[in-house]
Amino acid sequence: METLIPVNIMVGDRNYRLKVKPDEEENLRKTIKIINNKLIEFKTSFAGKDMQDYIAMVLIWLATEQPGSVLSDENLQEISGKIKNLQQLIEDAL
Fold first, then answer.
1. Which are the contacts of 50, defined by CB distance < 8 A and separation ≥ 6?
2. Among residues 2, 16, 20, 65, which one has the fewest Cβ atoms lying within 10 Å of its Cβ?
3. Looking at the whole model, is its pTM more than 0.90?
4. Taking the mean position of all CA atoms in its chain, how far away is CA 31?
5. What are 15-51's pLDDT values in tens digits?
6. Taking Cα atoms as reference points, which of 60, 31, 58, 59 lies closest to residue 43?
7. In terms of Cα–Cα distance, which of 17, 64, 70 is closest to 38?
């Protein structure tokens, strides 16, 4: 059994605590940085929306515009599960 380490991340204006494999932490942090940069970009381009709208825009961008992203069915299922978890966290917070 592989050991998971706790990682605190911030997406938008919310903190999340995740457990990841040690060798995945760097990739996670890079991805979160990209997400937060895109959130800022969308917030400046589309004023008046709420954070959930911006997060949805970023998710759509990640799924369609990220260069060189070819995802396997297994990766898509994993990402889909993570998106559902994030959606549930957002709905619970609202």
1. none
2. 2
3. no
4. 7
5. 999 999 999 999 889 889 988 999 999 999 987 778 8
6. 58
7. 64
